[in-house]
Every structure is written in C-alpha cells, then in structure tokens.
Amino acid sequence: QVQLVELGGGSVQPGGSLRLSCVASESSFSLYAMGWHRQAPGKQRELVAVITSSGSINYVDSVKGRFTISGDNAKNTVYLQMNSLKPEDTAVYYCNFRFRAVDATLYDFWGQGTQVTVSS
Prior knowledge:
Blueprint: E1 4-7, E2 10-12, E3 18-24, E4 30-39, E5 46-52, E6 57-59, E7 67-72, E8 77-82, E9 91-100, E10 106-110, E11 114-118
Parallel strand pairs: 2-11
Antiparallel strand pairs: 1-3, 3-8, 4-5, 4-9, 5-6, 7-8, 9-10, 9-11
C-alpha cells in the first residue's frame, strides 16, 4: 500500500500564493502520473493539474497561467505552485499518484487532503 503525505495549504488573501507538496512512499510499480485534484463545498472533485512520468502536463482551464505543477520522479514527489489565488480556488486539495503494474493495470492512491482558503 502506497502512503501519500501532503504538505502546504492554509489561508491566503486574494492574489496571494501557496505551494503544496506531496510525497509518496516507495512502490514496486512504475510511476505513471502525479496530479492534484480539488473539491469545493457542494461541488464534485475536479482535476486541477497532472504531470506524467514522461513530463507531459495538463491543467484545468481555470488555473492555466496561475498554477504550476512539477514533479520529481526519483523522489516520488509532486508540487503545486499556486499564484494569483482567487476565492474560487478555495477547496480541499488532494494529490494523486497513479502507478502501473507489469500487466498494465493502473492503481490510484490519494493524499489525505489539505485545505486551501482564499479570502479577504
């Protein structure tokens, strides 16, 4: 079982910045992708950003130009730098690691979630 530990989060005023990090314990499977999701009250969880083991990156449109995802495959660590934060970014943020077994089965593991609150 892979364990994920998230760090970062907190409260910030609009226009401020926060950095999230997430480290996963070792796995016998190959790392496939790392990502960040968020869930605001009363809303469904949405994918915010994802980075594959080969370095391909995608963002949800609402954070493009403001958020930056990066990862260190060797350290099983993923980061999310969040700049120009807006009140609508307020949510619980979850990191996600996806691993691939030798038979191509994909396995997802989740962090515990960290609260990000953007408010004046």
